[in-house]
Amino acid sequence: MSELRADGTGAGESLILALETSCDDTCAAVVDAQGRICANVISSQQVHERFGGVVPEIASRHHLQLVSW
Fold it and tell me: Which long-range contacts (CB under 8 A, 24 or more apart) does 30-39 make?
């Protein structure tokens, strides 16, 4: 009998961490070997609304704050 983690994946099963950034979004997900999404999170930058569009410098700095090693 194989060991299961709290998220339902097997103890020896590979997991993939996926990171995606677009103009004003930063997203992360953990996917198992069968392609099932174990966890995901999306952060949208609302700061651009007051400018009527995305400001590249603000977006870039915000991505750096959200995705740091």
Answer: 38/7, 38/8, 38/9, 39/7
Residues sharing a CB contact under 8 Å with residue 30, sequence separation 6 or more, in sequence order = 15, 16, 17, 18, 37, 38, 39, 40
In the chain, which stretches have pLDDT less than 70? Answer: 1-12, 69
Element (H, E) at 48: none
Fill in the DSSP letter of residue 55: -
Q: How far apart, in whole angstroms, are the C-alpha atoms of residue 35 and residue 49?
A: 35
What pTM value is reported for the model? 0.60
pLDDT, tens only, 1-12? 345 566 665 566
Structure tokens at 43: 């952060």
